Structures are given as structure tokens and as C-alpha cells.
């Protein structure tokens, strides 16, 4: 699954620079995660870095973007142009 940022986000700016895929950006009211770029940090880290640094615990799995670990690895390879 990709991750998502809920409306509990306080716009603290700590998650955006931690994303190795540049999937996080400032939205209209809170930060947002591009589901096409989010790999839950697979290929980069053992755990999602945005979740690790979030001080308010507002980054759950996105129930609208269910992906297997294999699909996340494929997305990682596509994003980094590795096959």
C-alpha cells in the first residue's frame, strides 16, 4: 500500500525532505503523498521514513491504494529505472 497523510497533519515540514522518492509535497491544507511515487521506502530503507519522523502520527497506510510488497518493489525499480 502507499501511505497517506491525514488531516491531523500540522504542516511541520519534517516528512517531505525524508522521502527518497520525492512523493511528498505541500497540498492545499496539509502535505500529500503521490501514490504513484510512494513505495513505503522499499528499496531505500527498512521502514517508511515519513512515518518515522512524523511527530503527530498522521501517516497511515492508504486503504485506497492496496499494493503487495512485490508491486512496491516493481514501483521502486520503475522509479529508479532499475530492471
SSE map:
Layout: E1 24-26, E2 31-33, H1 49-53, H2 69-79
Antiparallel strand pairs: 1-2
Summarize the structure.
By secondary structure, this protein is an alpha+beta fold. The protein is built from two helices and two strands; from the N terminus they run E-E-H-H. It has one domain: Alpha-Beta Plaits (2-Layer Sandwich).
Give an account of the 3D structure.
This protein has a single domain (16-79), classed as Alpha-Beta Plaits (2-Layer Sandwich). A two-stranded antiparallel sheet has the order 1-2. The protein starts with 23 loop residues before the first strand and ends with a helix. Helices cover 19% and strands 7% of the residues. It contains two helices and two strands. The radius of gyration is 12 Å and the shape is globular. The protein has 83 residues and is an alpha+beta fold. The mean pLDDT is 95. It has helices at residues 49-53, 69-79, and strands at 24-26, 31-33. This is 4Fe-4S binding protein. InterPro entries: 4Fe4S_Fe-S-bd, 4Fe4S_Fe_S_CS, PSI_iron-sulfur_center, YfhL-like. Keywords: 4Fe-4S, Electron transport, Iron, Iron-sulfur, Metal-binding, Repeat, Transport. GO terms for molecular function: 4 iron, 4 sulfur cluster binding; metal ion binding. It comes from Sinobacterium caligoides.
Amino acid at each position: 500500500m502507499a501511505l497517506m497523510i491525514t488531516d491531523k497533519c500540522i504542516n511541520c515540514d519534517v516528512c517531505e525532505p525524508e522521502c527518497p522518492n520525492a512523493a511528498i509535497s505541500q497540498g492545499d491544507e496539509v502535505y500529500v503523498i503521490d501514490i504513484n511515487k510512494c513505495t513505503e521506502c522499499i528499496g531505500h530503507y527498512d521502514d517508511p521514513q515519513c512515518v518515522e519522523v512524523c511527530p503527530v502520527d498522521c501517516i497511515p497506510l492508504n486503504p485506497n491504494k492496496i499494493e503487495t510488497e512485490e508491486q512496491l518493489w516493481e514501483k521502486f525499480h520503475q522509479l529508479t529505472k532499475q530492471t
